[in-house]
Amino acid sequence: MNKVQTNTRKQMSLTDYVQYRNGVPLGASSSLRSMLVHSLGAGTFAKFWQHWNPIWGYALGRFVYEPLNQFLPSSISLILTFIISGGIHDLATMLVRSAPAFFFTPWFFLMGIAVVFARLLKLDYSNQAFRVRVAINLTFILVCLMIAIGVKQLL
Length: 155
Description:
Blueprint: H1 3-11, H2 14-22, H3 31-40, H4 45-51, H5 54-69, H6 74-97, H7 104-120, H8 130-154
Helix pairs in contact: 2-5, 3-4, 5-6, 6-7, 7-8
């Protein structure tokens, strides 16, 4: 995430941020469809996450990523943000199941790593057809998921 995006989020309300990211107002009947089209059709894996669940992304960016980025490199801040998000998902799972859960944290860690490496490699598929972009983004997610499941089974 660059400084312009960080400053944009600091200056925007949640309502404005959702409109900015997905082109529809917060709570609009077309919100889910718009989020799916914008995120799955994104031309980079980083842009996928800019559009995916903008309410959660706004909170994570503002209250996790930005404070971390004050004293850590952006790539480390990003990976830690993914880990914290995974931890919160695991915590919610534990509260619902009343049992230990450690699934989302490693999966989200891997997706954070994927974002960082895709950026380093300057992997941009925005010139590809929509279906190809969807396939690439889903492949990133599913490969990270399969690795996380494999590691969990080994432990």
